[in-house]
Amino acid sequence: MKHAGVPTALVNERRAAGTLMVSGAEDGIRLSLTIDSGSSRLIVREARHDGAGDTKTARVLDALCAIIVGRPLQEAADHGVIYVMAALPADCAPIVGIRTPRNAGPAFTLAERLVRQAHAAARQHFDIDHRENAWYLRPDTDWVMKDEAARVAVIKSVVTDFLRTQSLGEDDIFLSRIERGTRVTVGFASTVTYAMKPKLMLALEQQLRRETGNPLELFVEEMKDANKIRRL
């Protein structure tokens, strides 16, 4: 059954063999995703945006595009903006209770609408009914078999190299904890400004993934009292 209410213009021509571009657009802002149409999971191969008129919206969409590449389109629609919220805590609106894309601020709400429009367009194009999202990132066997000390050593080495390439001090970013093997939480020294953190978080996560070959996810410690943050 076709899904009503999705503009057909959101599905564009095939950009290359086995791929299709879908997009979501609102008020002149467009999120364009190239997906692997030969895969049952419609993996996102490329992501870009244009038309963002303010820096916060552009920053949120930059983060979304970086995070969802390599993930199924449904996973991008279901959880992409949640990952962005974790990567950009300073850009989220202060709330009481559980933070969601719908209360984190207009930029996050817009990002969620755009990626879900793109997902809806793909579902309409391929005549896909709703299905359960059972996808999750899996590390390789070698990483799973490492103990915490071995994982810490690998991650610290990557962080040290990253700090050097960014001309930052050796303590400007530090490892706080590793959870479930792939969830890496870091803290920042007070000398690192809020404006610097989003770009550093994205770049460091990408470097960790490249150098370890594993789907590590980077989160930032909310620093209420730096003296109470445990460092590994």
How would the blueprint of this fold be written?
Elements: E1 19-26, E2 29-36, E3 44-50, H1 55-68, H2 73-87, H3 106-126, H4 141-145, H5 148-165, E4 173-179, E5 183-188, H6 197-212, E6 217-220
Parallel strand pairs: 5-6
Antiparallel strand pairs: 1-2, 2-3, 4-5
Helix pairs in contact: 1-2, 1-3, 2-3, 5-6
Average pLDDT level = 85
**What level of helicity do the residues show?**
25-40%
Biggest β-sheet description: 3 strands, antiparallel
Distance between the termini: 53 Å
Please identify, by name, the CATH architecture of the largest domain.
Alpha-Beta Complex
Q: How many helical elements?
A: 6
Number of distinct beta strands: 6
User: For the largest beta sheet, what order do the strands appear in spatially?
Assistant: 1-2-3
CATH topology title of the largest domain: Sufe protein. Chain: A
